[in-house]
Amino acid sequence: MARKKNLSLDEKIINTKELIADYEEKLKNTKNELKELEAEKEVLELQKLRDSIKASGKTIEEAIEIIKS
Length: 69
What we know:
single chain, 2 helices
């Protein structure tokens, strides 16, 4: 069975800093992915709204007036 090398305090600090940097990069990437997914959802919702307005035979302006009233 291999023995685990005892790390010095400095080595532990370096390893921990590297781990934090890895997590920060992963968090940044995950936030970017979330932003892209939210943008995609908004596009789909707007397309659905446009299609519904078109199917109703109303113009965008008429639909806006209905919503405002």
